[in-house]
Amino acid sequence: MSIPFLHNFTISTYLNSQRLKNKVFIKVCTKLLREVKRVGNIERTYNIRYPERIRELRQDRDLTQREIARILKVAQTTYSQYELYKRPMPIECLMTLCKFYDVSADYILGFTDER
To answer: Is the pLDDT of residue 104 over 80?
Structure first.
């Protein structure tokens, strides 16, 4: 009993399919690297200001990171990472901070200096 799909299968066919897979893999990796560079350039182009702004707003009101973290329902270490820009801040936290501080999202994000 022979297996139909293996009947015409040869080692060279297998090697050619592996080369094709490798070429596709290399193309995908190249595209990903280009995208990473592009995103990195965007971050350098747009000055990320929200870590400075949320620290400034917190300090102006003499609040601790722990108090703001409770309001956001996150750990104090997580909030600290937002201020240090080691972790991106979720949109839900941004909205909560806007309401709490009574400022616009544009202000926190650094698009405007008007509170």
So the answer is: yes
Helix residue spans in 46-104 (DSSP H) = 50-60, 65-72, 76-83, 91-101
pLDDT digits (tens, 9 = 90+) for 34-80: 766 665 555 544 567 889 999 999 999 999 999 999 999 999 999 99
φ/ψ (deg, to 5) at 111: -80, -20
User: Which residue type is seen at 83?
Assistant: E
Distance, CA of 103 to CA of 58 (rounded, Å): 12
CB 112 within 8 A of CB 104: yes
Cα 62 off chain centre by: 30
